Amino acid sequence: MTARLLAVCAAVAVALGGCYREKREIQPSPPTSPEDPTKVSAVLPGSSAALRPGSKPTPDRSYLEENAFAVNQGKRLFRWYNCSGCHANGGGGMGVPLMDKGWRYGHEPQAIYRTIVEGRPNGMPSFGGRIPDDQVWQLVAYVRSMSGLLRKDVAPSRADALSGAPPENTRDNEHPVPEKAASSAH
Fold first, then answer.
1. pLDDT at residue 105 in the model
2. Which residue among 21, 93, 127, 179 is buried most deeply as judged by most CB within 10 Å?
3. pTM for this model (two decimals)
């Protein structure tokens, strides 16, 4: 009897050891040094940091879009920072829609990051220095989830407010196109 129990316990331990669990950063650790490629990437392309002498490189944390917890935090921050005031829960209002194919300034994580941090002419204010960098990347991950640009298994949880909308991870991928290509198709 003891040998069977020991064999069952060993089988369960082996099975649990093979399970994958995503890493959730409760508080992200700061970059250690520019020489550490796992922590800091080069300056983001097109970033104003590339133009300012003596400015620190911007860490690329676009990998957060592979973490369901980070995407969910982005959803919470989207509501807390009242992004819905202009973007109407992603469908557009005073601000541009965030759930369609037309991405004026790009759908890549770095382009969305620059839009939040630097702002855009005639509308989007600059939030650089007002929102912590890790929260900006969480917002980037959530904004990309609104158009179905993330894997289906990385989904924010349901909203705290009552809502009848389907979860973001069930939306079809929109395949964003540059504005010039979208306007020439009309």
1. 87
2. 127
3. 0.58
